[in-house]
Specification:
The structure holds 2 protein chains of 2 kinds.
Chain A: E1 2-11, E2 15-25, E3 30-34, H1 41-49, E4 57-66, E5 69-70, H2 76-82, E6 84-87, H3 99-106, H4 113-126, H5 128-132, H6 143-155, E7 161-165, H7 173-188, E8 192-197, H8 200-206, E9 209-214, E10 217-223, H9 224-229, H10 231-237, H11 245-254, H12 256-259, E11 266-267
Parallel strand pairs in A: 3-8, 3-9, 6-7, 7-8
Antiparallel strand pairs in A: 1-2, 1-4, 4-5, 9-10, 10-11
Chain B: H1 2-32, H2 39-82, H3 90-112, E1 128-130, E2 133-135, H4 137-159, H5 161-171, H6 173-178, H7 183-205, H8 217-223, H9 226-233, H10 238-258, H11 263-278, H12 287-291
Antiparallel strand pairs in B: 1-2
Helix pairs in contact in B: 1-4, 1-7, 1-9, 1-10, 2-3, 2-7, 2-8, 4-5, 5-7, 9-10, 9-11, 10-11
Chain lengths: 270, 292
């Protein structure tokens, strides 16, 4: 459904953010994208949703294909109309508008009034709290509710592929679990999901497949189960026994050669 | 007391016109963060086309031509000049509009030559006597037209898809883009609306009752009073633009009578300064305070 090939992206003239990212996601699946700060996760999502230009970034090489069509030169509105919708990091709800108006803004990309009504019913069913608080200003919602609104807003145009950028950021563990359930529910209703997360525990529980980005490259990819079992991922992202990030990184470097040998994982070479 | 009441009516009449202009600034600023310094020249172009076409089309036809051309010119400016430099800083784009303003204004002034044509009016120029009050019809019509347009604008801004898209983009450009809101369309319609409102405003400005002067460089400087109106209301507040317009209109009318006519222009800017000292983002503005 979505294929990213050898994607290289930079900001401005010199700051390279992605050095060759490859990944693909089948229709009807959830792909987790893991990686530490600065690995290029958000840049990847910006490239897919076409908002890279707003950050003065540009695609230097490679391509992004959705449903057989290249989308890396399209503007964000066209990409939304093809069925790819993003939920930005930090939620970014329209704080001064009401909950209902936020959903309405999300539905502007929908094709027909009927599609909007259907989407709104689906969103209200998934997030009853958004129906209860329809008239409230979005800025007054709690963090968890804002995240639900941000996801609900994105679902208003009935996307085929939903891009989530760190939906667990800054939320209490209980809410994070709830968000995980919601992602599964959205997936069960037939929307594919790309889930960018630092919270690897939640992401790997929800996803079918996962990739790990390291400094702008796809370092590992495989099924979520295989990645959960891999030593590197255990150490780096699942709170294994490493004492600090620095020692974890050193160990990871030492283990680099063994990586490819881990059963079921393929190593990407840029 | 009668003088005072009469001044209030005059002030509100002028204020309604300033409100239309200030609303134009605010709409453009909200959509793009660009302060459009070429607003005065849009006013002149609208007025000039009324002057040119009035003899053949009559007042109503000419007024429609003037309003539409001001709107189209605004769209052209946005499409041909501003949208080409998407990544340019909003401040450099504001400087670009200053240059444009000078070019357009000088061209219209050159075409007018020594003439200072009144745009005339479709209504009877005789003032109405109510009790001891002398009311100018131009002011009354301006209040009526202003009320209708401002109401229509607010209804659209609050309830239409255009309004939702516009407010979403004003609040968060990236999130709006992610929702599939077409930023170029929102921006172009913002300029169109501002241009149309400028075209309406000039029909009142270049009349005997409003300014005592026809279309000229003076029309441009009168239109500039909409700047303090927009700024003291809060550059990102549509309601502020309307209130600001009324404050400016009333300040001008009252200070011209009770202090001196020459002082009335500076009085407007004094009021603006006082407001800005007390509330740096204007009466209803939020932008600066939310950013800090």
């Amino acid at each position: 459904m979505l294929v990213v090939r050898n994607l290289r992206v930079r900001y401005g003239r010199s700051v390279a953010a992605l050095h060759g990212v490859d990944l693909q996601i089948a229709a009807d699946s959830v792909l987790a994208v893991l990686g530490s700060n600065g690995a290029g996760k958000s840049t990847l999502l910006r490239t897919i949703s076409g908002t890279l230009r707003l950050h003065r970034g540009s695609v230097v090489a490679g391509e992004v294909e959705f449903a057989g069509r290249r989308i890396d030169r399209l503007d964000p509105a066209e990409i939304v109309r093809l069925g790819v919708v993003g939920v930005p990091e930090g939620r970014q709800v329209f704080a001064r508008m009401s909950v209902e108006e936020n959903l309405r803004a999300g539905g502007i990309g929908a094709r027909t009034a009927q599609a909007r009504t259907l989407a709104r019913a689906r969103v209200h069913e998934l997030f009853p709290v958004l129906a209860e608080r329809a008239k409230q200003r979005a800025g007054l919602l709690s963090g968890g509710e804002q995240q639900m609104l941000a996801i609900g807003r994105a679902l208003m145009s009935a996307p085929k592929l939903l891009l989530l950028d760190e939906p667990s950021l800054g939320l209490a563990p209980k809410i994070v679990d709830r968000i995980g359930e919601i992602i599964r529910e959205i997936h069960a209703q037939g929307t594919a999901v790309v889930l960018v997360e630092q919270n690897a525990v939640m992401a790997l529980r929800v996803a079918d497949h996962a990739v790990v980005l390291e400094t702008g490259r796809t370092a590992l990819s495989g099924t979520a189960a295989d990645l959960s079992a891999s030593d590197d991922v255990q150490r780096l992202y699942l709170g294994g026994h490493a004492e600090s990030e620095a020692t974890a990184e050193a160990e990871a470097r030492g283990a680099a050669e063994q990586r490819a040998a881990v059963r079921g994982l393929s190593r990407w070479v840029a | 007391m009668e003088t005072f009441l009469q001044l209030v009516v005059n002030g509100v009449g002028k204020g309604a016109v300033f409100a239309l202009l200030a609303l134009g600034f605010v709409v453009i600023f909200k959509a793009t963060e660009v302060v459009n310094f070429a607003h005065g020249s849009l006013v002149l172009v609208g007025g000039y086309l009324v002057v040119v076409t009035r003899d053949s089309l009559g007042w109503v036809g000419a007024a429609v031509v003037g309003i539409v051309s001001a709107g189209l010119l605004a769209i052209l400016v946005e499409r041909l000049l501003l949208s080409r430099s998407k990544l340019a800083d909003a401040n450099s784009l504001a400087l670009l509009t200053i240059g444009l303003d000078v070019i357009i204004t000088e061209e219209i002034v050159r075409r007018l030559g020594v003439t200072v044509p009144f745009l005339g009016e479709a209504w009877d120029a005789q003032p109405i006597q109510v009790g001891g009050l002398t009311l100018f019809r131009t002011h009354l019509v301006a209040i009526g037209v202003g009320a209708v347009l401002v109401t229509a604008f607010f209804l659209a801004f609050r309830y239409s898809d255009w309004g939702v898209a516009m407010r979403a983009q004003a609040e968060n450009r990236e999130a709006a883009a992610l929702m599939g809101i077409r930023s170029s369309r929102v921006t172009a319609t913002a300029w169109l609306v501002a241009g149309l409102l400028a075209g309406v405003a000039v029909l009142f400005i270049a009349t005997q009752d409003f300014s005592g002067s026809g279309l000229s460089r003076g029309t441009h400087s009168i239109a500039l009073a909409a700047f303090p109106a927009a700024i003291l209301g809060g550059l990102d507040s549509t309601a502020g633009a309307v209130v600001g317009g009324l404050v400016v209109g009333l300040t001008e009318a009252l200070s011209a009578q009770y202090i001196s006519f020459d002082f009335s222009k500076s009085a407007v800017f004094l009021v603006m300064l006082v407001v800005l000292v007390a509330r740096p983002s204007g009466l209803f503005g939020t932008r600066e305070s939310t950013r800090v």
